[in-house]
Specification:
The chain is of the alpha+beta class. 38% of the residues lie in helices and 19% in strands. Strand 5 and strand 6 (163-169) form a beta hairpin. Molecular chaperone. Has ATPase activity.
C-alpha cells in the first residue's frame, strides 16, 4: 500500500559503499551499534532541552526525557525510541540519505585496509545511525519534530541495499523510534540481560535515562526498568569515580577507542563557578591538520547542553584537548558570537589553559614514557604555543622537546632543562640549527666547531621550528643562537683560533680580495673562518638577516622576499683551499671559487638556482 508522500530515493554513492562495508565487513564487535543509537537519542534530548529554553511548548506536556528499548522475540525486532527533538522530513533526508562529513572517504578507506580494527573505527569516525545495519537487514525509522502537528510524522525504511523509502505518517508523540529487523544469527541481541550489559558498558554515564522493557510472563505484566545511572558523571564526587569510569566517559564523548593519557577533573567555586573535565588523548585524530577539524570541548550550562566543539575555551595550540565544561555563570540566551567575546568566556579560557598546561607538566614530571607518547602525537601542535600565548610562554617553553647532537636518532626527547644542565664551561647561549630534515641538520658543516668543542646543538627539522624559534628569546637566562648566523659568542669559543686567524688573514688578504672581486655583490662579505674542520667553505647570515629556513617558510606561504645576502666563510686550513689559493690562471681560479660557493649554497639551501651549471662546472674541473 502506497502511503501519503511516499517516495523512493537512492543513497549517496559513498553511503552505498559504507552500507556495503557495514553489512559485509564490520562483524568483530557488533554491540557497538547500541552505543551509537543511544548517543544519538541523548543528543536529540540535549537539543530539545536547549531549544525549549526559548519555547517551552516543544515539550508538548511531556518533560521527562528518556530513551526506551523494547525487544520482540517473536518478530525478531529491537525498538529504540526517544522523546527528544525528532526530525522533519527534510532533516531525515539530509541526515540519513547523505553523509555530510568530510571524513567519509577516509572512513571507508580505513575499514577496507584495516580488517582488525573495524569495530573500533565506527566510534572513531562517528557513523552513528548506519551502524544499525551491522545486525539488521531492515531498518525502519518513525520520527516527528517537536512542536509540529501529529500528521507531520515521517516514516523512513531501508534494507541497506542502495535505496530507501520515505513517507508521511501520523505520529502521536514527538521524537524518533528506530526498529531493527535482525539478521539471521543475531539472536543474542534478543536477550534482555545481554542488552542490559551492553547499555551498562557503553551508556551508563548518559545523562538521559535508558529504560528497557521487562515482560513478566508469569503475571502477564510489562514495566520499564532504568538500566543506567543517568547522571552527569562530571558532577559526581571524584571519590566515587574510578579510572575505568573516566576512561569509559572519555570514549563516550569522543568516540575514541583508546584510553586517554591523563585527565583533570576540577570544580571551581568563587567569582566564577564551573566544573571541568579535561582529557589528553593518547593519539592524534586523522584530520588534526584539516581546516574543518572539529576541535574544542563540550559546553554545558547548569547541566543543559549548549554546544559541541566550543573553541572559545581552549586556544588553538591546545586543540587536541577533549572534555567538557559545565558553568553556572554563562547566560543561556547568549548567541555563539556574543559568547566568543564574553569576558567570562575569556577568563574561563585562561583558567582552562593553565589547567591543561599543568596536566602536561605533571605528565612530563611523573611519567616520562607517557609524555614521550604525547609529544610524538601532539608536539607539532604544542610548538605553536610560544607564538600564540604570551601569558604561559615560560610554561610552554619548559614543555618543548628536541633532538640534538647528543642523540643518536631523530626522536625529540630532550628538554631545555636537560640541555642547559649539560652546557660546557664558558658557554653563554643555547645553540640550535634549523634544516629541512634531521639528516640535513645533523650533517651540516656549521656543526664542525661544536663537535670539536663538545658543545651540544639542538637539531630542528620540523617546518614550524624556524617560526617557533623566532618567538623563543631565552630560557633560564640563556638566549638562543642559530649556528648558521654570525654571533660574537661564537668568536669567544674560538679565542685561541682567532689569534692564529689574524696571522693567517694577513698573509691571505690578497686571496680574500681576489675572491671578493669575483663574487662582487653576490655575497655580503668574504672572510676566513676557523669554525670548520672537514669543509672548505660555508655560507652564513648576519645577525640581522633572515635565515635560509625562514625564507623557505615564507616563500612556501606565497610571500615575495628579497634575496638573502650570505657571508662566504672560507676555511684556510683546508687542503683544497690551500691549493686553490695558489692557482695563477684566472679562469681556472674563477671556476674553483664558483664551485666552492655553489657547494656552500647547496649545503645551506638544499638546492641551487641552476643545478646543471654546477654539474657542468664540477665535471670540467674533474677532467682538468
Amino acid at each position: 500500500m502506497i502511503m501519503k508522500g511516499q517516495e523512493t530515493h537512492d543513497f549517496q554513492s559513498e553511503v552505498k559503499q559504507l552500507l556495503h562495508l557495514m553489512i559485509h565487513s564490520l562483524y568483530s564487535n557488533k554491540e557497538i551499534f547500541l552505543r551509537e543509537l543511544i548517543s544519538n537519542a541523548s543528543d536529540a534530548a540535549d537539543k530539545l532541552r536547549f531549544l525549549a529554553l526559548s519555547d517551552s511548548k516543544l515539550y508538548e506536556n511531556d518533560h521527562e526525557l528518556r530513551v526506551r528499548i523494547s525487544i520482540n522475540k517473536d518478530n525478531r525486532t529491537i525498538k529504540i525510541s526517544d522523546n527528544g527533538i525528532g526530525m522533519s522530513r527534510k532533516e531525515v533526508i539530509d541526515n540519513i540519505g547523505t553523509i555530510a562529513k568530510s571524513g567519509t572517504k577516509s572512513f571507508i578507506d580505513s575499514i577496507s585496509s584495516d580488517g582488525n580494527n573495524q569495530d573500533k573505527l565506527i566510534g572513531q569516525f562517528g557513523v552513528g545511525f548506519y551502524s544499525s545495519f551491522i545486525i539488521a537487514d531492515k531498518v525502519s525509522l518513525r520520527t516527528r519534530l517537536a512542536g509540529s502537528s501529529l500528521d507531520k510524522g515521517v516514516l523512513w525504511e531501508s534494507t541497506g541495499e542502495g535505496n530507501y523509502t520515505i513517507a508521511n505518517v501520523k505520529k502521536a508523540d514527538r521524537g524518533t523510534e528506530i526498529t531493527l529487523h535482525l539478521r539471521k544469527g543475531e539472536d543474542d541481541f534478543l536477550d534482555v540481560w545481554n542488552m542490559r550489559r551492553i547499555i551498562s558498558k557503553y551508556s551508563d554515564h548518559i545523562a538521559l535515562p535508558v529504560e528497557i522493557e521487562i515482560n513478566d510472563q508469569e503475571h502477564n505484566t510489562t514495566k520499564w526498568e532504568k538500566v543506567n545511572k543517568a547522571e552527569a558523571m562530571w558532577l559526581r564526587n571524584k571519590s566515587t569515580i574510578t579510572n575505568k569510569d573516566y576512561h569509559e566517559f572519555y570514549k563516550h564523548i569522543t568516540n575514541d577507542f583508546k584510553d586517554p593519557l591523563t585527565w583533570s577533573h576540577n570544580r571551581v567555586e568563587g567569582k566564577q563557578e564551573y566544573t571541568s573535565l579535561l582529557y589528553i588523548p593518547s593519539h592524534a585524530p586523522f584530520d588534526m591538520w584539516n581546516r574543518d577539524h572539529k576541535r574544542g570541548i563540550k559546553l554545558y550550562v547548569k547541566r543543559v547542553f549548549i554546544m559541541d566543539n566550543a573553541k572559545q575555551f581552549i586556544p588553538n595550540y591546545l586543540r587536541f584537548v577533549r572534555g567538557l565544561i559545565d558553568s553556572s555563570d554563562l547566560p543561556l540566551n547568549v548567541s555563539r558570537e556574543i559568547l566568543q567575546d564574553s569576558k567570562i568566556t575569556k577568563n574561563l579560557c585562561i583558567a582552562l589553559t593553565k589547567r591543561v598546561l599543568h596536566m602536561l607538566e605533571l605528565l612530563a614530571k611523573n611519567n616520562n614514557e607517557q609524555y614521550k607518547i604525547f609529544w610524538k602525537e601532539f608536539g607539532l601542535v604544542l610548538k605553536e604555543g610560544p607564538a600564540e600565548d604570551t601569558i604561559n610562554h615560560k610554561t610552554i617553553t619548559k614543555l618543548l622537546r628536541f633532538t640534538s647532537t647528543k642523540n643518536n636518532n631523530s626522536e625529540q626527547t630532550i628538554s631545555l632543562k636537560d640541555y642547559t644542565s649539560r652546557m660546557v664551561e664558558g658557554q653563554e647561549k643555547i645553540y640550535f640549527i634549523t634544516a629541512d630534515s634531521y639528516t640535513a641538520a645533523k650533517s651540516s658543516p656549521n656543526l664542525e666547531l661544536f663537535h670539536k668543542k663538545n658543545i651540544e646543538v639542538l637539531l630542528l627539522s620540523d617546518r614550524i621550528d624556524e617560526w617557533m624559534m623566532s618567538y623563543l628569546n631565552e630560557f633560564d637566562g640563556k638566549s638562543f643562537q642559530s649556528v648558521s648566523k654570525v654571533d660574537d659568542s661564537l668568536n669567544k669559543l674560538l679565542d685561541k683560533e682567532i689569534k692564529e686567524q689574524k696571522r693567517i688573514e694577513e698573509t691571505l688578504q690578497p686571496f680574500i680580495k681576489r675572491v671578493q672581486n669575483i663574487l662582487n655583490n653576490r655575497v655580503k662579505e668574504v672572510r676566513l673562518t676557523h669554525r670548520l674542520t672537514n669543509t672548505p667553505a660555508i655560507v652564513t647570515t648576519d645577525s640581522n638577516e633572515m635565515t635560509t629556513q625562514m625564507a623557505k617558510l615564507l616563500s612556501a606561504a606565497g610571500k615575495e622576499l628579497p634575496d638573502v645576502k650570505y657571508i662566504f666563510e672560507i676555511n684556510p686550513d683546508h687542503a683544497l683551499v690551500k691549493n686553490i689559493s695558489n692557482i695563477k690562471d684566472e679562469n681556472n681560479f674563477n671556476n674553483w671559487i664558483e664551485l666552492l660557493l655553489e657547494q656552500a649554497l647547496l649545503a645551506e639551501c638544499g638546492t641551487l638556482e641552476d643545478p646543471n651549471k654546477f654539474i657542468l662546472r664540477m665535471n670540467k674541473l674533474l677532467l682538468s
